[in-house]
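Team,

Forwarding the record for the chain on the shared tracking sheet. I've put the sequence and predicted structure together so nobody has to dig through attachments.
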Amino acid sequence: MPNGTIVSFFDVFNISGTPTGGTISVMADDSATVILNGVTLMAEASMTGNTYATCSDFGIGCLVPTIVNLPTSALHTGSNTLEFDVAQRHGSSFGLDYSGFVRDTVPTPEPASVLLLGLGVLMIGVLAPRRKGLAVLE
């Protein structure tokens, strides 16, 4: 790819509960911008002072993973879109590598609700009419 080329990669993921944050680890050659649901979380490494001898000297590069926090304010219950705008700056290899996780809470019944349900089932068993004796078949 010629220098100055920027290619966008997208990943859509779903969150079933209430998101409480997360992180992704990103490596890119030469650098990348990370965008979550339209919110820029980290911009491409600056060209100023950057030799791009192998990839970016700082920021998102290809030698050491960059950890990017996924703020709760940018995450949604349901569908979420990660966008990576990968920039070619040094005229050789080009790529993206990332992994991550999202923390979420799945609604669970509170203990009082479970206790009330259990008491209700117990009372049905206690108050249900009982049969007197058993029929004997001959």
